[in-house]
Structures are given as C-alpha cells and as structure tokens.
Design a protein that fits this description.
The structure is a single chain. By secondary structure, the chain is mostly beta strands. It contains 1 helix and 20 strands. Strands 11, 12, 13, 14, 15, 16, 17, 18, 19 and 20 form a 10-stranded mixed β-sheet that branches. A hairpin with a 4-residue loop joins strand 7 and strand 8. It starts with a helix and ends with a strand. The N terminus is likely disordered.
Length: 246
C-alpha cells in the first residue's frame, strides 16, 4: 500500500512538472541604418531643367544622434538610449519574443527631429536577424492616386508614364511643369503609387502630375497641389489628383 502511494505521488509530480512552461528567453537584435541622399542629375545641362533623381550614400551632416524605437504588438513604443548617428547601428537587448515594429529617428544637434525611417515589422525570436533601415536624409516620398479626365469624362491612360515634379519658392523657384528641374515617374496604368524620393524643401512645396507620351512630351497634367513640410524620409500623402487631357 505504501509503495503504491509513493508511486502515485511520483507520477503526479512528473505530470505537474511537464505542465510547467519555460519562461520566454529575452533576445537581442542589431538595428542598422543606411543613410541616403537625393541627387538631381541634369539630363540636359545648361538647358534649365530636365533632370531626374537618384539616391547615393549619405552622411550624418546636420544630425548627430539616433534613437531606435521598438513597439511590441499591443504595447506602447519604447525608445532606446540615443546613440551617435555615425555608429550606423545599435543593439537592443532583453527583448521578449514577439512581433515588433522597429524604426529609427535622427535628430539635429539641438534635439530637433530631422528624419525618420520607415517602420520595419519583425518577428523577434532567439535567432532574430539584423534589421536594416534606409533613411533618405534630404528627401521625401510623395504618394498619390490619379485619374485622367477628358471632356468631363474619366478615361484610360493616354500615355505610358505619369511624371511627378515638385517646386516652390524655397526649393527651386523657377521649376514648372513645362520646365522641370527634376522628375520621377511611375507607370500611368497603375493609377497610384509611391514615387521615388524627391528633394525636401525648407517650407511647404507644390507637386504636379503629368502624363507623358512615348517621346516624353506632356499631353495631360493636373493642377498644382501644395503639400506640407515634413520630416526627411517621410511619405507624404497627396490624395487623388485629377489629370486633365485637353
């Protein structure tokens, strides 16, 4: 009888132990930021316009501090201690496993926010991969949808490409739809999308869309629309623009 009771207690003990889940093991993750700048390449030097943009390697410049943010699903965002922008990376430790949003803010010498990376979502496990964040330090991304109208009716795309230009008193004051200083394009038939980064002005700027024919000539255009000054690397929503074909 005594042996039976001991045996039963031993079995109960094993069952109890097997039901105990191990505590989640905190992990660390390396976050790297890659700085980019927008350069305007003049396709027709000396002709007053016709340039396009491309991205090249950037440097810290006006900003010297970086702060990495992590936000676990269902919880408030947590800021890491700020670090030197020039380190290009920061390791975050003691992260419980879960799904996180991760981004980096760059700030100027006096602490003013200057640029913010896109938010990167990552599943943090014991073997979390490094996170790579691209930051355009002197440009913004413009997002828009569009429709093409002729004689009051919505039509299909009259040309293959939609061109975006931006201009304003603080950016490049003499640029217009007919004399663009730089351009970026998307296929017209997508009727929307995020354009490649364009230079960031010092105040509110103006954007305009145009449909180009196969030779690159403007055959339809939207009215200019103002958009607000934003942090570098931000995506600025222009909404739906109406492109009118005469």
């Amino acid at each position: 009888m005594k042996a039976s009771i001991v045996s039963s207690l031993f079995v109960v003990g094993i069952v109890a132990l097997s039901g105990c889940a191990a505590d989640p093991v905190p992990t660390s993750i390396d976050v790297h930021w890659n700085l980019r700048e927008v350069h305007v390449i003049q396709d027709h030097p000396g002709m007053g316009g016709g340039g396009h943009t491309e991205q090249v390697a950037g440097s810290c410049g006006l900003f010297d501090r970086a702060t990495v943010y992590t936000q676990r699903e269902g919880e408030p965002a947590q800021a890491s201690p700020s670090t030197s922008c020039a380190t290009d990376s920061h390791q975050i430790t003691e992260l419980p496993p879960g799904t996180y949003k991760i981004w980096v803010d760059l700030v100027t010498h006096d602490g003013t926010p200057y640029a913010r990376s896109a938010v990167h979502q990552v599943d943090v496990t014991e073997a979390a991969q490094p996170v790579e964040l691209d930051v355009v330090t002197d440009g913004v991304y413009l997002q828009s949808t569009w429709k093409v109208v002729s004689a009051g009716a919505t039509i299909g795309c009259p040309g293959p490409t939609v061109q975006l230009i931006t201009y304003g008193t603080q950016l490049i004051p003499h640029c217009t739809i007919d004399n663009p200083c730089f351009t970026t394009t998307l296929p017209c038939a997508t009727f929307g999308g995020v354009f490649d980064a364009v230079p960031r002005g010092d105040s509110d700027e103006v954007a305009q869309l145009a449909v180009l024919d196969a030779e690159g000539a403007v055959i339809a255009s939207s009215a200019p629309v103002a958009y607000p000054h934003a942090l570098a690397n931000d995506v600025v929503m222009l909404g739906e623009l109406t492109i009118t074909q005469p």
